[in-house]
Amino acid sequence: MTGPSCHRSVVRRDNWSKVFSRFPGVWILLIAGSAVFGTGCRSRAAVVAPPAAIVSPTMDVLYQDDAGAVRDSSMWAVSDSAELATQWKRVTAASLSPPPVPAVNFRREMLLFVAAGPRKAGDRIHVDSTRVVGEALHAFVTITEACPRMPVNVYPLEVVKVTPTRRRVEFRVSSVLGKCPPESVRSR
Q: What is the pLDDT of residue 58?
């Protein structure tokens, strides 16, 4: 049996689970059909998992601060030494003893700078992960609100080192409330 009815079929794993859960009798038909028709066919059905996103294997935090060197909410990527020198000077300007510009091999690494803008004391910003989605690198960023919130403004920022890409970088930001005792939640 090598005619047109003997073709390679590709079935996504998540589609099969829907079929089997809705129609349990499909198991019997599948087994019977493969016993009758599958013996003469040289190709088998390939089960293909959905494409996995590429996640950055390395993510090192190089710098965190909330002193106010960057006062607006902004996020950007740096992928060359000249831009790094300029941006490092910018983000460490409010530090009393700024750290030196880090050594970065831009063939193997790039930097993401994330600044939360004006927040309350204790709030933090953090790059949780990166993932290639289509034509973009998505950087997932979380802003955590401290509890209880103090009435003093700070400007949290973070610089992380990630695997480089030539894709555009898109930042996906979410805000979460830190762990609060029950009485401070009620006072908000």
A: 62
Residue 53 contacts residue 80 (beta carbons within 8 Å): no
49 φ/ψ angles, rounded to the nearest 5 degrees:
-75, 155
The length of the chain is 188
Cα–Cα distance, 99 to 60 (Å, whole number): 16
Average pLDDT over residues 50-76: 80
3-state secondary structure the chain: CCCCCCCCCEEEHHHHHHHHHHCCCHHHHHHHHHHHHCCCCCCCCEEECCCCCEECCCEEEEEEECECCCCCEEEEEECCHHHHHHHHHHHCCCCCCCCCCCCCCCCCCEEEEEEECCEEECCEEEEEEEEEECCEEEEEEEEEECCCCEEEEEECEEEEEECCCCCEEEEEEEEEECCCCHHHHHCC
Whole-model pTM over 0.70: no
Q: In the predicted model, what is the mean pLDDT of residues 132-157?
A: 91
